[in-house]
Amino acid sequence: MQDIKFLKSLNFFSLVWFCFFVYSSSFGQTKAETIETGVRRGTLDNGMRYLIHSKEAWEGQNVSMNLYVNTGHELEVDGQTDISHYLEHLPFAIFLDEATAAGGALLDAVHSGKFPWQGHTHARHTCYLFLFDTVGSEIYTAELDLLSRIIGGSLKPTPENLAAEHGSFYQEYIHRNGPLGYDEERLFWNLSKIYAPPVRPEHYYEHVKGFDWDAVSSFYKDWYHPQRATLMMVGAITDLDQAAQDIKAYFGKLKATPAKKLVYPQIAYLKSPNQFIQLEQLDTDELELSETKIDLYWRNQIPPKAEPKALQHKWMYEMLYVLIGDHLRQIPTTYKLHYKLGIDKEMRLPALRLNFRVFTGKEQEAVQQVIAALNQLKKQGVDEAAYQKYRQRELKAIDGRDTNALGSVLSTYKQLMLAEESPGFDQFALKKRWLNQLSSDTVNSELKAFLNAGPQDIGILAPKGASVLQLSETQFRSWFDQAKNEVGMETNEVLKTKLIPDSLIARLPRVTSKDLDTDALGGHLIQLANGVRVVLYPQEDAPLNLHGFRNVGARNLNKEDFIKAQLVPEWVHTSGTGAYTHFELQRMLTDLGMIYGKALYVNQGESGIKLKAPAERLEALLQLAYLYLSAPREDPEAFKYWKEDEYFFYKRPPYGREENDLQVLSKKELEGPKAGLTALARYKAVQQSTATELKQIYQSLFQHPQEFVFLLSGDFKEEQVLPLLETYLGNLPVSINQVKREEEEVNTLPQGTLEKVYTIPGILPSDLNLKIQYTYPVARDDWKAQLNLQLMRDVIHTRLWELRHVKKRGLYLIQAVAYTDLDLQRGNFAIMIPTVAGMENYLIKDMQELMSWFKEHPISEKELDAIKSRFYIVGITGKSILDKGYRYYKWGLQIPDAEMVKAYLEGVTPRDIQAFIQDKLVPEHQYIFMGKGVPDISN
Q1: Cα–Cα distance for residue pair 668/750, rounded to 1 Å
Q2: Where do the domains of the chain lie?
Q3: Looking at residue 333, what is its pLDDT?
Q4: φ and ψ at 754, to 5 degrees?
Q5: Of 258, 264, 207, 224, which is closest to residue 83 (Cα–Cα)?
Q6: Residue 561 and residue 554: Cα distance in Å, rounded?
Q7: What fold is seen in the domain 507-731?
Q8: Is the CATH number of domain 34-116+131-262 3.30.830.10?
């Protein structure tokens, strides 16, 4: 028995596109041809392909012009790691330089917040994606000109472009958690040798700064040529012939140039001997726990040369991957054997990869359990129901394609063009015919052959001194042979609509209730005999939402319990509630169509619960609330599991740890009520907590129903809900563990400017997070001031791009955030800038100049109108009736209606915005926070 763990979502993995590059016929004809009304396609004399598709259904949408170049990470050699991605950055830097110099429509688009471009770099292709309104427009011709220069070998970034993109490229690497993947990239490189070797995180910035023009142009000249490019134009284009002529005019004059011979390393991988790789992790975190990472690869067969057969080959493996993943999800799950398991299909290798993260010393048990499950699958095969479920889903997806959806058409064409697939057959019709002719016997035969053939490749990453690093391949593979042949899979249980057994329900008497009339929002207020207040907001055809809260939180406890109180919700979530473990509850709620997630919450001044359910699950919703607020499970194994799970969370948090920690530390500095915990503080508190402590804190926060207000909205009848409220919420237990309340002084802001620097674990020495914040008083009921704050944020955001592209500061991401803290009645405007160490003083000065510019130059009417058209009004009027009810019962606030807000918004002028900025964004309200890495003293 075990904990499973976690399976990554099974994204479709294109296994054999590369074979099309080698064996398929060329796309299109030498001359342009008409396929159907609204479509033009062809191949220019220099080998460049193009396709134009127009439909009236796309009227009013932007036209998409996409350039695909057959180059990417897979073509890099030693010393060029990630240079294909860096090269993709440069055209956009040049484009913005030109837009800034020329002004006009392109610059207007940037100022409006609608950047009309983006790029993506993949293993074997790079995309340049552009948008424009009409053929012949200023933006359209500028984009064609840039794309022709890219393919024609005329890309010429300035030294300033190159230097600035070094910083922004490095920051993108940090933002996408590149350092966390270094060990796995190193293992992957040793297994496959498909990409250039990875660079150690602490050396990555210096590596990137080595991308001078000599290094970049070497790669550029090898792989950027007309015959390696495809241009697609999709949208409501009124004159297709003119668009085709434009393509010929801009691209037809380009000469076919000698290109470096293309090599397909994935085929070489399929032909290579089996691999067994053991590497020591470079991670040096000194924590109580340590983990081993294991990769097991089942290789696909070499695909056939014939195009239709190659497609069927690809589709078969897609099916096998999904069926194997579905089977592994059924492994019985308990708290005893804790590991994470995923299926990785990132298009990097033509193979099924099972990736484990398991605690060091537990590797054999984890691997054997999964191998046992696969042995059972080989022996029994996929049952007919599972096969038919997959087959019907695929057929439904084919039949349900919306050929009028621009995004769907783009996706289809992208696959065809990248694969250089012959247009002589309909891929979807072929797949449908293949699925209809397929049988479960054929699938099981393929499945058995596939599983019997592997795993061919094994990769192990473990901490220094781990015994698994000393194993031979024969010893490791012997674990497979020792695995039990049978794993008891859980069968589908009969759907339960009651989370509480009838015997317990019989012991819950209906308590009395009192009608307290209707509130100002139209809600029906009821008070139960135990003091619980419930407000009902019936809404037809709406799902159920329940929010209960109490104005007591972590700050009402003593100093020792303050942090631990914020751990309680996750502890309860992981332990389960009532008679159900975490895993049983997850399955049951999934079967009931209810969202399974963390229900309880605790912040500094409040504790509460939030639940959702379909309208038909009213009783189950209230039963679940009763269980969460009365009966968390107490299980030593669950408690141990929770501590282990927090290790995985700390090592790979779902957010950027550095940015999160800077936010937490800065909010604490300003005494924010919802500052949260830093990653390290959370991890240490978890490891130091006991179950007894957490239970007592839980009882003191959640088992005082007389202080709770519950807001319930959704499709229900009041006569239906009242007996259920009296049964479940009316019987919530009252704990003897009380919270000692103390009156607190009103928080005040520090006077004058504040600058604070933090050292944050996990940040590389070259990395820096800068937060420039303006904070000033805003009354809870002053919704106009809150709206003004949002407008200021949106206006200032229109010029932040200049820090990267005009001042060339080397920034990848600039985040501007504005929000009103209703607890402290403060308005907050913050600019988050991840950058590199040494740039902080320049950026602070840049922001001061930017604020001065806004104080002297009002934004144009045109730009302000564009901002107003996208303004998020529900942030002021409330997202839902529950949101409005919460503010009403929490602070006595009544939110303005939408028409009142729209009328005020309409009347705000550029001069008004200028006055807001002059009044509010001043040195007296400014605070600067920096999070820096720890210098590496080992070198």
Answers
A1: 12
A2: 34-116+131-262, 270-402+421-482, 507-731, 754-932
A3: 83
A4: -140, 135
A5: 207
A6: 7
A7: Cytochrome Bc1 Complex; Chain A, domain 1 (3.30.830)
A8: yes
Q: What is the pLDDT of residues 581-590, one digit of tens each?
A: 999 998 889 8
* Cα–chain center distance at 349: 23
User: What is the C-alpha separation between 939 and 932, in angstroms, rounded?
Assistant: 18
- DSSP assignments along 763-806, one per residue: --TTEEEEEEEEEEE--TT-HHHHHHHHHHHHHHHTTTHHHHHT
For 59, other C-beta atoms within 10 Å of its C-beta total: 10
Classify strands 815-821 and 229-235 as parallel, antiparallel or unpaired: unpaired
What is the share, in percent, of the chain residues with pLDDT greater than 70?
Answer: 90
DSSP at 670: T
Helices 783-797 & 840-856 angle (0-180, nearest 10): 110
What residue type is 483 in one-letter code?
A: A
Report whether the peptide linkage leading into residue 455 is cis, meaning its omega lies within 30 degrees of zero. Answer: yes
User: What's the pLDDT score for residue 785?
Assistant: 96
pLDDT of residue 33: 45
Token pair 């076919």 is at which residue? 256
Tokens of 508: 């819950």
Residue 623 Cα distances to 512, 707, 838, 890, angstroms: 18, 20, 56, 25
How much is the pLDDT for 898?
93
- CA torsion 167→168→174→179, rounded to 10°? -60
339-345-347-350 Cα dihedral, nearest 10 degrees:
100
What CA–CA distance (Å, rounded) separates 845 from 833? 13
Q: What are phi and psi of 103, to 5 degrees?
A: 70, -150
Give me the helices (H) in 303-426, please: 307-328, 363-380, 384-399, 406-419
**Could you give the CA distance from residue 99 to residue 103 in angstroms, rounded to a whole number?**
6
Q: What is the full DSSP assignment across 177-196?
A: TGGGGHHHHHHHHHHH--SP
DSSP 8-state symbol, 703: S
Structure tokens that stand for 891 in this block: 């602070």
Q: By three-state DSSP, how is residue 711 classified? A: strand
What are 412's two structure tokens?
Answer: 């289809």
| Calpha distance 28→416 (Å, rounded) | 11
Report d(CA 427, CA 416) in Å as an integer. 9
- For 154, the token pair is 């005329």
Q: Do domains 34-116+131-262 and 507-731 have the same CATH topology?
A: yes
Q: pLDDT under 50 in the chain at which residues?
A: 1-35, 421, 423, 486-488, 490-495, 937, 939
CATH architecture of the domain covering 754-932: 2-Layer Sandwich (3.30)
Query: In 400-510, which residue ranges form alpha helices assigned H by DSSP?
Result: 406-419, 427-437, 440-452, 473-482, 502-505
Cβ count near 286 (within 10 Å): 6
> What DSSP state is assigned to residue 762?
T
- The span from the CA of 139 to the CA of 147, in Å, is 12
Q: How far apart are CA 846 and CA 738, in angstroms?
A: 52
The tokens describing 566, both together, are 């914020």
Q: Are 343 and 324 in contact (CB under 8 A)?
A: yes
For residue 413 the two structure tokens come to 């064409």
Edge-to-edge strands, sheet with 2-4? 2-4, 333-344, 351-359, 291-299, 457-462, 276-280
Rounded Cα–Cα distance for residues 163 and 715 (Å)? 58
Torsion of CA 264, 269, 271, 277, to 10 degrees: 160
- pLDDT tens digits, 510-540: 999 999 989 999 999 999 999 999 999 999 9
Length of the chain: 939
What is the fold, at CATH topology level, of the domain defined by 270-402+421-482? Cytochrome Bc1 Complex; Chain A, domain 1 (3.30.830)
Q: Specify the pLDDT at position 423.
A: 47
Global pTM value: 0.85
pLDDT score of 936: 57
Burial class of residue 126 in the structure, from the number of CB atoms within 10 Å of its CB (0-12 exposed, 13-18 middle, 19+ buried): buried
Judged on CB neighbours under 10 Å (0-12, 13-18, 19+), 579 is middle
Please provide residue 641's backbone torsions phi and psi, each rounded to the nearest 5 degrees. -60, -40
